[in-house]
Amino acid sequence: HEQTIFNNIKHELAGAGSDLRIRVQFLDTARFGGFCQLFRNDMARACTMHANCCIGMANKVSDLRDVLGQWRNYTVMAPAEKMKAKAAGRSFEWRVPAKCGTPDKRP
């Protein structure tokens, strides 16, 4: 239902009759991750993670908290430590969501 609500708000704010002059545009998915499409799985390139395909607020909050924890662990690493790990073949990828995403991607 969130997408429907967003579409209504979007048209209200950016529609022809709006005085706000807001422009809404699609963004390149190369900088965005989502629970249903983890193919853009490079933490170094991520800007945001969304859970719009996830059903249930408790599921979204649980998995987004996990993402935040993963992000914190990644960002506290020194650049030299990240380069050393990358050179050793360790990659920094998002874990598959525990409660969201498609059943074939859940652990």
What summary fits the major beta sheet?
2 strands, parallel
Q: Encode the helix/strand succession as letters.
A: HEEHH
Question: Structural class given helices, strands, pairing?
Answer: mainly alpha
> Helical segment tally?
3
Report strand %.
Answer: 5-15%
DSSP summary, beta strand count? 2
Which oligomeric form is depicted?
A: single chain
Report Rg: 17 Å
Main sheet strand line-up? 1-2
Low-confidence stretches: none
Helix content: 25-40%
3D shape: elongated
Overall average pLDDT: 78
The span between the termini is 26 Å
Protein name: Nucleotide-diphospho-sugar transferase domain-containing protein
Domain Nucleotide-diphospho-sugar transferase: 1-64
InterPro entries: At1g28695/At4g15970-like, Nucl-diP-sugar_transferase
Tell me briefly what this model is.
Helix content is 38%, strand content 6%. With 107 residues, the chain is mainly alpha-helical. The protein has a domain at 29-88.
Describe this structure in words.
The chain is mostly helical. The protein has a domain at 29-88. It is built from three helices and two strands, in the order H-E-E-H-H. It has a two-stranded parallel sheet with strand order 1-2. The longest helix is centred in the middle third of the chain and has 19 residues, at 57-75. The model has no long low-confidence stretch (mean pLDDT 78).
